[in-house]
Write a structure and sequence with these properties.
The complex is a heterodimer.
Chain A (H helix, E strand, L loop, with lengths): L3 E4 L2 E4 L5 E7 L5 E7 L5 E8 L2 E5 L6 E7 L2 E6 L8 E8 L9 E2 L3 E5 L1
Chain B lengths: L3 E4 L2 E5 L4 E7 L6 E7 L5 E8 L4 E4 L2 E6 L4 E6 L8 E8 L4 E3 L3 E6 L1
Parallel strand pairs in B: 2-11
Antiparallel strand pairs in B: 1-3, 3-8, 4-5, 4-9, 6-7, 7-8, 9-10, 9-11
Classes of the chains: A mainly beta, B mainly beta.
């Protein structure tokens, strides 16, 4: 049983297209995140949602729009894709503000914009 | 703003060596610190979590320490094996998000 699952695993698309990545967690966590890992492998926060409410939006272009229909799901929609959006996107979940709760990550979505 | 630094960026050792990976952070107001492993093309696997009030955690050949006041953590790997080759990431949780270091790319040669 996968704790944090995201789909698709690979996504190849043309510039200008709109695409979505889905994420689901079955851990009962109250907080979910999207991270971007660039070509230099650095992981940077994009969004953080707590109980379906946006709490972090880290200077991400408006073309990126997260949606959390419930605590277990956080989807990422990207409009008008650009070459620079090519990266690996990771979804994660945890319990906000708890010292003893690990964060779990999905396997990543490798987005390639051509 | 929290900043996390990992040293060294890359490390190559012969099999069997004990090694230490370093992580430093600028803001000591954290809930916990996690060490992750990432294999090429794969996701992140949690190795150890140290709560803010703890000094160390152990799992098998791995031992992680935390000195919150000085903003430092170390990951000690005993008797390294080729299968330990991966990128090791530390991340601090300040409540709203995890902030990651740049990682240490470890290569253990047979």
């Amino acid at each position: 049983d996968t704790a944090v699952s995201q789909t698709p695993k690979y996504l190849v698309t043309q510039m200008g297209n709109d695409k979505s990545i889905k994420c689901e967690q079955n851990l009962g966590h109250d907080t979910m995140y999207w991270y971007k890992q660039d070509s230099k492998k650095f992981l940077k926060i994009m969004f953080s949602y707590n109980n379906k409410e946006l709490i972090i939006n880290e200077t991400v272009p408006n073309r990126f729009s997260p949606k959390s229909p419930d605590k277990a799901h956080l989807n990422l929609h990207i409009n008008s894709l650009e070459l620079g959006d090519s990266a690996v996107y990771f979804c994660a979940s945890s319990h906000r503000g708890r010292v003893n709760t690990e964060a779990f990550f999905g396997q990543g979505t490798r987005l390639t914009v051509v | 703003k929290q900043e996390v630094t990992q040293i060294p960026a890359a490390l190559s050792v012969p099999e069997g060596e004990n090694l230490v990976l370093n992580c430093s952070f600028t803001d000591s107001a954290i809930y916990n610190l996690q060490w992750f492993r990432q294999d090429p093309g794969k996701g992140l696997t949690s190795l150890l979590l140290i709560q803010s009030s703890q000094r160390e955690q152990t799992s098998g050949r791995l031992n992680a320490s935390l000195d919150k006041s000085s903003g430092r953590s170390t990951l000690y790997i005993a008797a390294s094996q080729p299968g330990d080759s991966a990128t090791y990431l530390c991340a601090v949780d300040a409540g709203n998000m995890l902030t990651f270091g740049g990682g240490t790319r470890l290569m253990v040669k047979p």
